[in-house]
Amino acid sequence: MKAAAEAGAGPGPLLGTGSVSLVVSSSLNAFRTHKRYSTGLTIAEFKCKLELVVGSPASCMDLELYSAEEQLLGRLDCDEALLGSYPVADGCRVHVIDRSGARIGEYEDVSRVEKYEMAESDYEKRPESLRSFLRQRRWGRYDAEGTRRRADEQQQRRAQEAALAAALPLGARCQVRLPGQPSKLATIMPNRLQAGLLGGRPLR
Question: Rounded mean pLDDT of 109-121?
Fold first, then answer.
């Protein structure tokens, strides 16, 4: 590999067929991607696959090859040569230099991507939408009868609790139990339970 680097890492004899795991980086972004590629690809085909990774047009790419130790091995500059004819090995890095004039981070800015928006009336008519699915099965907010029933049940429980509380005699002693806490003695006071107090003194 050292000799290849000194010679510019130009294409040589095919170093066997198969695939190689490479790290892909770009001059347009900071992230790196690990991908496996066939060594039987031509550099032109390899660039087309890199388009999907870095976003740069294949026609505007210059490729640099680095070893796993980040030593520059040379350029992948012959589009007709096979990837395997260069000294590529698992862990090597291919750095894509973009010559399209794009700015750094341009392909990462999703705010520039045109978003598809559907009119509310059109969405309402779609039979395969989530809204249609929920409406057909009467789930969630589309279950009007269930919502009304639960509201009535909650109102009844509150009325029953209020009736029970009103029937308790003021001054009577009681035991208060709260989840995760020891039970306490208390006395019933107007509109509230005052735990542990009876006539201003703790209960024993």
Answer: 73
